[in-house]
Amino acid sequence: MLAPRSLPSSALLRTAVQAIKPSKQVAAPLASRSFTLWTRPTEKKKHWDAPPRPAIDASDMPLNPGPPPPENKIGVNAILKQNSESLDRHTTTIFSEFSLEGMTAVVTGGNRGLGLEMALAYVEAGAHVYVIDLPEEPCEEFRKVADHCHKLDRQIEYISADVTNKEEMNEAMPYILEHSGTNSLDICVACAGIMQTFPAIDYPIEEFRKVMEVNTMGVFITAQAAARVMYTQENVGGSIVLIGSMSGTVVNRDQQWVAYNTSKAAVLQMGRNLAAEWGPKNIRVNTVSPGYIRTNLVADQLDSDPEMLRRWSDANPLGRIGRPHELRGVMVWLASHASSFCNGADIIVTGGHTIW
Ligand code: NDP
């Protein structure tokens, strides 16, 4: 065979063209298929202009939501099963699928910070909420939120207990079941957590243990105590959400948080294990991994270095840190029937911090 170099240039070109020419068997590209619009309007399209909304005064904000819809009223299947006479009735269920009406939720670490934000979201979604936190008495922030809830005729209660104390937690959960207005414990959020900074080389072992004790053992003790109560409920099931952190998946640049990050990585794996063991009992377990959000937990770090806020903000594509209320949607979704097939997942809420 001749070396290509010795062929005339036209022969070289021919060989190259032959090499890329499609064989006859290759199917023609789909480009020739024409586009058809199935939903051709048969009559003149009606336009509906929404009437201007009357301004709502904060004092007469509507109380919502209604009860969650029964499963047979949800989605495409419900439409297919609807009988033709009722087809005109336009009902939508999507928002009420997020309703927590008739459910009881417990949130640890809910005296302030992210836990309090979650507790309020659950109250607004219709749940009867119990908050568990360390101090004997709730702080001013909690009291204000509780006053607001009571004015709305919604229930939020405060229990002082330590999540690392199994006796206290195993007492608190049955108490909640017994006293809740719904006769059930449906939702448990293990949110209590602490944070420390030490260089790994000098990390005092007792301090490391303390972080693991609250952030990992405390989460397990909370989830176990709640699940024990949920196990006793017939036809109820439950949703347990463990608050992890993006620090369970990635290392925070320039932060000396080895104990915190280790404790959060353990929470993510714990969530998957509990999801596997309790799923057959219809108890779903998921984890939420927030990114940087200003609360007391990270206030010291932010305040100690004026550059810190910029560095944390630049670390995600949105260019800012999160706000506590930006967890409301995901927390209500995970607690509600709207997430009924979500189990063993880790939901990352970081503005995109972990994609780089
Ligand atoms: P906060 O410090 O504002 O709130 C934590 C709450 O947990 C406090 O009320 C604290 O009570 C309570 N707590 C601590 N130890 C115990 C205990 N042994 N028993 C009962 N309650 C306890 O922090 P955040 O709201 O920011 O944090 C909430 C969760 O979110 C934590 O698990 C944290 O790791 C996680 N997270 C937070 C992020 C952030 O940027 N803020 C990012 C990622 C995850 P007290 O004040 O009395 O100590």
UniProtKB/TrEMBL annotation:
GO terms, molecular function: oxidoreductase activity, acting on NAD(P)H, oxygen as acceptor; oxidoreductase activity, acting on the CH-OH group of donors, NAD or NADP as acceptor
Keywords noted in UniProt: NADP, Oxidoreductase
Pfam families per the UniProt record, alphabetical: adh_short_C2
InterPro entries reported in the protein's UniProt record: NAD(P)-bd_dom_sf, Sc_DH/Rdtase_CS, SDR_fam
Cited PROSITE patterns: ADH_SHORT
Taxonomic superkingdom: Eukaryota
SUPFAM superfamilies on file: NAD(P)-binding Rossmann-fold domains
Region spans: Disordered: 42-67
PANTHER family xref list: BENZIL REDUCTASE, CHAIN DEHYDROGENASE, PUTATIVE (AFU_ORTHOLOGUE AFUA_4G08710)-RELATED
Family: Belongs to the short-chain dehydrogenases/reductases (SDR) family.
Protein name: Uncharacterized protein
Organism: Malassezia psittaci
